[in-house]
Specification:
CATH topology of the largest domain: Arc Repressor Mutant, subunit A
CATH class of the largest domain: Mainly Alpha
CATH architecture of the largest domain: Orthogonal Bundle
Number of helices: 8
Number of strands: 0
Oligomer: single chain
Number of domains: 2
Order of helices and strands: HHHHHHHH
Largest sheet: none
CATH superfamily of the largest domain: Winged helix-like DNA-binding domain superfamily/Winged helix DNA-binding domain
Structural class: mainly alpha
Strand content: under 5%
């Protein structure tokens, strides 16, 4: 009789071996480590009862990564899971860089976090995991043209935000 515990050893081994990679993907999608850990945990909890399907997949890690991306997109659709992004956090004192320079990484995270979930997921899968359009489409459950559109629109939005930021920096220095 096949039950969910028959693959417990394989599941535990997979989790030990692949959690760091899944957490990196989730972090790029969520933008913070606590949400990333929760996303990976929720995904693995949902997959455990049907672990035999994951093991039957051609590439189990790709299957789970796709599930992480889908879980992320689904969570952002639920009104109760949406977070309000503020330019400055009220509980932190405002820190001003006297030289007027920004940490590019933090700025990029903020810009990436402002994109819609599907655009962000498409960009992460393309530029972090270096997946081709076909695999991104399979992971997000959309057509090839939609993948290209998501990536194009996401990059255009990031370019616009960079231009806005550079313009604001020039105005502030003037």
């Amino acid at each position: 009789m096949d039950g969910p515990n028959d693959g417990a050893g394989e599941f535990a081994g997979f989790v030990r071996a692949n959690t760091p990679a899944l957490l990196r993907t989730a972090y790029l999608l969520c933008g913070d480590s606590l949400s990333a850990e929760e996303l990976v945990q929720d995904t693995l909890v949902r997959l455990y009862p049907k672990w035999h399907l994951v093991l039957a997949a051609e590439a189990p890690l790709a299957y789970v990564r796709r599930s992480v991306a889908n879980q992320f997109v689904n969570q952002t659709r639920r009104p109760s899971r949406r977070e309000i992004t503020l330019e400055t956090l009220p509980e932190r004192p405002e820190s001003h860089d006297p030289a007027g320079q920004f940490d590019d990484r933090e700025e990029l995270w903020a810009m990436l976090g402002s994109l819609p979930a599907r655009q962000r997921a498409a960009l992460v899968l393309r530029y972090f995991h270096d997946l081709p359009d076909e695999e991104i489409g399979a992971a997000l459950g959309c057509q090839l043209g939609t993948v290209r559109s998501l990536i194009s629109r996401g990059l255009a939005a990031l370019r616009d935000r960079v231009a806005e930021t550079e313009g604001a920096t020039v105005r502030r220095l003037a």
